[in-house]
Amino acid sequence: MRIGFSLLNNWGIEDARALVGLATRAEELGFDSVWVHDHVFNVGHVFDRIGGRPYYEPLTLLTFVAARTQRVRLGTSVLVLPYHNPIRLAKTAATLDVLSGGRLILGVGVGAIEQEMQAMGCSFKERGAFTDEAIAVMRALWAEEDPRFDGKYSQFAGMKFSPKSLQKPSIPVVIGGVSRAAIRRAARLGDGWQPLGLSPEALAPAIASLRQEALACGRDAAKIPVSIAMSLAASTPRRYALGTRADEIVRSAQAFAGVGVDTLVISANTSDADEARTALQMLAREVLPAFPSQRAT
Question: Please, are residues 33 and 265 in contact by the beta-carbon 8 Å criterion?
């Protein structure tokens, strides 16, 4: 199992450069990947967590990180796809993929905050349909020499599109979410599935459902790896977490590996950059040695 680390762009850390420093240190320590998150407004659970403090734009931050790193994979966990014009996003993502040497993982989801979605000019009721189409749009633009598309939300033909993604046939698109609809979307369209906050016991049957859905779609479930985003915190009745002591974090991580998780994305859940760096170094010392094969080359 591979270990990734959240760069905490969603935790109100005042010094944005400290987040870049977390990424470079994660690469030095041998983490496989670093991850960023996506909201535009501080509303709902985001406001409850950080109030009016900074929530940094994810792809801008990843671009800065790409320039300061060489190996670590760069993931979004996850972009709220209805907030993005898929043609413009395809251009931005392909450019980042080229600049980073093919390291981008594009995690996407449908979103859940209706007020924010309305402000972004998106239909909350149509967010699932928009997301499905947007994924198809981006893949066409990344892969086809003469892309054309005639959908409900996007239509184009007779124009060249560049750059193409460095990764072939396209940048991996990972589907985020814990709902039945998210599992079905991952089985139909995903290059991976990334839920959050599920215990290993709850995740195991969900992975079984993913495999069954993939089979029904004629897809090989082995080509839909599972990653999961988890926090360094005590579990609550509504959300499972890895714990706070090193020994319980290692046990939790091993339990996720045991049910078939490919990548464990860990968030330190702090607004203090120094605390985040301390957590990163603790994970490198205590958790990475338990998964020696996770280190990317």
Answer: yes
- DSSP string for 156-221: E-S----PPPSSSS---EEEE-SSHHHHHHHHHH-S-EE-BS--HHHHHHHHHHHHHHHHHTT--G
- Coil vs helix vs strand at 59: helix
Bridge partners, residue 175, by sequence:
108, 193
**Which amino acid would we find at residue 4?**
G
Name the 3-class secondary structure at 103: coil
pLDDT tens for 73-123 read: 999 999 999 999 999 999 999 999 999 999 999 999 999 999 999 999 999
CA separation for the pair 296, 228 (Å, rounded): 18
Q: How confident is the model over 169-184, as pLDDT tens digits?
A: 999 999 999 999 999 9
DSSP SS3 for 46: helix
Which one-letter DSSP state was computed for residue 107? E
Q: How far apart are CA 68 and CA 23, in angstroms?
A: 8
User: In 3-state terms, what secondary structure has residue 203?
Assistant: helix
Strand partners, 150: 155
Buried b (16+ CB within 10 A) or exposed e, 185-199: bbbbbbbbbbbbbbb
